[in-house]
């Protein structure tokens, strides 16, 4: 049976979900406070780079509005607004609170209200429910189904990634499970409580953050010891059990792994528990942009370069390859660190983030550059940074913040290669 669905928040999570639900025959309307974004979506234009969204909107624009009263006729309402952290790493629930307050006057009995925004355990009961309870006459099915998206991934999408769900009541959980199973090509696991559903998202992302921090620390150690961390990880990965390879880099970005641990850290603090492990992982991963930039000095010292200013081509600003999302991107911190240096002449290029680039093309970034610093491993950039092309442009050394380039080939061209836990000369 098809549903009338309203998706609140048309970003990287909400928009693909809305388009997927529409493709399943549901009547879908989007709601977002960003007027420019709504204008693009209703005109059939993708508000951010995504092949699926671009194709779907080109075929048929999505109905969307900046007015919260569109939820009035919905059977299902999915709230997928961002839940960032503040500058001092405190959870910022204001987008979630304001979106719920805006739609509250228009809610009606028996609607299914699903919160997909990432939240720490307790938010559904302590923040969401009190807001809805301002209308005590309402009977809603309230659930939490934490979002799972992987931008730029051709294999795993909102359509086929398994999900978990937990409701404030068993009836709500069943209703939510039925709805998500009707639009997904993936299983939906019902949790025993809404708090367990909240905890799942936090656990899976802190797991990744901790493991990335571990290999980042090992990369720093191996750099001092002259050991190639990538080769060691690949060697360890030959063990068929009890090891899961994670790889080091210039930092952790995006709106999940770099944010969610802080939600758990703060929630633990409120309960009187000190998450030392999670905080240490955050500290290590936050240190990686500075470590990547420090390789610039290592290269200058190793090659006895005295030239000032040194022309550096910083390549990539997005937090991961082949997307335009710069949220929490470690490349932005590298950019800020480099811009503060008087001994550096900086060129910046990202084919997906041209509005922050200082040059219009990769070729313009490379001509006359002394150093290439890779901050995001976009496919087009990595394919162009062949050893031969770097040699042609007289690049003196390369700082590979993603360990994505041909280290041996670059070194064979007589170019110093400095990766994260890798050196070739």
Q: What this model shows, in words?
A:
The chain has 425 residues and is α/β, with parallel strands linked by helices. It has three domains: 4-194, 3-Layer(aba) Sandwich (Rossmann fold), CATH 3.40.50.720; 254-286; 287-424, NAD(P)-binding Rossmann-like Domain (Rossmann fold, 3-Layer(aba) Sandwich), CATH 3.40.50.720. Helix content is 40%, strand content 14%. The chain is globular and about 75 Å long.
Characterize this entry briefly:
By secondary structure, the chain is α/β, with parallel strands linked by helices. It contains 16 helices and 14 strands. The protein folds into three domains: about 5-195, Rossmann fold (3-Layer(aba) Sandwich); about 255-285; about 285-425, 3-Layer(aba) Sandwich (Rossmann fold).
């Amino acid at each position: 049976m098809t549903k009338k669905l309203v998706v609140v928040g048309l970003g990287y999570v909400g928009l693909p979900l809305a388009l997927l639900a529409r493709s399943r025959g549901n009547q879908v309307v989007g709601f977002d406070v960003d007027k420019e974004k709504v204008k693009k979506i209703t005109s059939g234009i993708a508000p951010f780079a995504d092949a699926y969204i671009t194709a779907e909107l080109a075929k048929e624009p999505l109905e969307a509005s900046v007015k919260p009263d569109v939820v009035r006729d919905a059977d299902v309402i999915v709230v997928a607004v961002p839940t960032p952290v503040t500058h001092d790493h405190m959870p910022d629930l204001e987008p979630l609170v304001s979106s719920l307050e805006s739609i509250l006057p228009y809610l009606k009995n028996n609607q299914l209200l699903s919160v997909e925004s990432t939240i720490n355990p307790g938010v559904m009961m302590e923040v969401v429910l009190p807001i809805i309870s301002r209308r005590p006459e309402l009977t809603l099915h309230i659930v939490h189904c934490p979002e799972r998206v992987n931008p730029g991934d051709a294999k795993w999408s909102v359509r086929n990634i398994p999900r978990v769900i937990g409701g404030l009541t068993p009836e709500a959980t069943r209703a939510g499970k039925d709805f998500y199973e009707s639009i997904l090509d993936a299983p939906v696991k019902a949790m025993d409580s809404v708090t367990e559903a909240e905890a799942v998202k936090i656990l899976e992302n802190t797991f990744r953050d901790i493991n990335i921090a571990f290999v980042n620390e090992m990369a720093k150690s191996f750099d001092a010891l002259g050991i190639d961390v990538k080769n060691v990880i690949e060697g360890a990965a030959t063990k068929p059990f009890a090891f899961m390879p994670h790889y080091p880099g210039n930092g952790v970005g995006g709106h999940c792994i770099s944010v969610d641990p802080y939600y758990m850290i703060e929630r633990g603090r409120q309960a009187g528990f000190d998450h030392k492990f999670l905080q240490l992982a955050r500290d290590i991963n936050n240190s990686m942009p500075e470590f990547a930039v420090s390789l610039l000095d290592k290269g200058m010292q190793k090659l006895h370069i005295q030239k000032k200013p040194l022309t550096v081509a910083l390549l990539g600003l997005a937090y991961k390859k082949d997307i335009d999302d710069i949220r929490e991107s470690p490349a932005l911190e590298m950019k800020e660190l480099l811009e503060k240096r008087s001994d550096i002449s900086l060129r910046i290029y990202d084919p997906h983030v041209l509005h922050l680039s200082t040059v219009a093309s990769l070729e313009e970034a490379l001509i006359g550059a002394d150093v290439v610093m890779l901050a995001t491993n976009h496919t087009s950039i990595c394919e162009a940074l062949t050893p031969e092309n770097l040699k042609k442009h007289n690049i003196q050394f390369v700082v590979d913040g993603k360990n994505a380039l041909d280290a041996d080939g670059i070194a064979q061209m007589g170019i110093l290669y400095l990766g994260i836990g890798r050196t070739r000369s």
